[in-house]
Fold this sequence. Notes:
Helix 1 crosses helix 12, helix 2 crosses helix 12 and helix 6 packs across helix 7. 38% of the residues lie in helices and 13% in strands. It has 325 residues and is an alpha/beta fold. The protein starts with 30 loop residues before the first helix and ends with a helix. N-carbamoyl-L-aspartate binds next to helix 2.
Amino acid sequence: MSVQMKNGGIPPKISGNFYGKDFIEISQLNKEDVYKIFEQAEEIREAYDSGSISDLKVNARAAILFFQNSTRTYSSFNRACQILGLDVFAEHGMSAFSLAMKGEFLRRTIQSIYQTQMLTAGDVIIMRHPDTNSSHIAASAVDASIVNAGSGSLRHPTQALLDLYTIWKDIKNLNNIELIFMGDLKFGRTVKSLGSLISMVGKNIKINLVSPDICSLPDKLREEWEEAGVKTTQTTDVLYVTRLQQEWFEKSNMMNEYNKIKADYIIDYELIKKAKNNTLLMHPLPSNGEMEDPKLDEYAGARYLNQMKNGTLVRSALIRQITKK
Ligand code: NCD
């Protein structure tokens, strides 16, 4: 188990030092930690562009274990590890392994990969899993650092970092920002982590929550954000759209409701043109009908493509901080 998880399974505070720690939830970070990642991402971007990336390489191993589908997160973590020169084992289809087929417990699967890949403390296991506590379980099973690449419908901390980094690239002062979170705020995990992150980093943040009633943000989270000073608003600097999470509707036997509301939240070029000047249009992707208009790519504030490259940079930054002594 990672040393920091010994006491009660609460992930350690980063407090300026990422080395050898698990990164599982936003509550581990303070403001300085976030800016440290942003600055490291900038350094990696410059080194990559100028051909001096070999100076930033680290000597460590990574296992990338995905128990849920992914295009962007999986490929960007892979690329991040390659950029840093890590020795990588990557498997996208973990749910077809013994865990699902033979009923193995997650803890044993993680221990098995740790052993077969000959990992040690200072190495990383990057994992995505449908259960909210999966990263916590993994962190208590092995000495390598666990990086949460999306767990259950609650946490996606590295997506939040790349989202906030994308916003920060346009809006340097992260105070007084107004956002709209639109789509599935109940099952979607990206907005939950982003809301928690921006309410910790920025002052006077306003978030307007737009969703069908059955997909509204859990009350507990809204109360937490309000306690951190977040207010609700109608205008916006950032419109952050998410898809309706069809697979969670299926799991909850709610496909009738899904079919009723699926056409209600569509953003096209005609609509976004009417937005306040400079509104940034973001989406973690995949989109599922709500943002397919190809003309949207011409919108000056479109940032959903930038988000993906930023994801590779931010994840490189995070992994470098965790693995470099
Ligand atoms: C998101 C996820 O998996 O939570 N995708 C991503 O990581 N970019 C969003 C989603 O699936 O809707």
